[in-house]
Amino acid sequence: MKGRLFGVGPGDPTIYSTYMYIHRIVKAKGYETTIISGIPSFCAAAARMDDSLVDRAEELHVIPSSYGIEAALNYSGTKILMKSASGISEVKRTLEEKDGNVNVKMIENCGMPEERIYERIEDVPEQAGYYSLLIVKESKKER
Question: Does residue 6 register a pLDDT over 80?
Answer without folding.
Answer: no
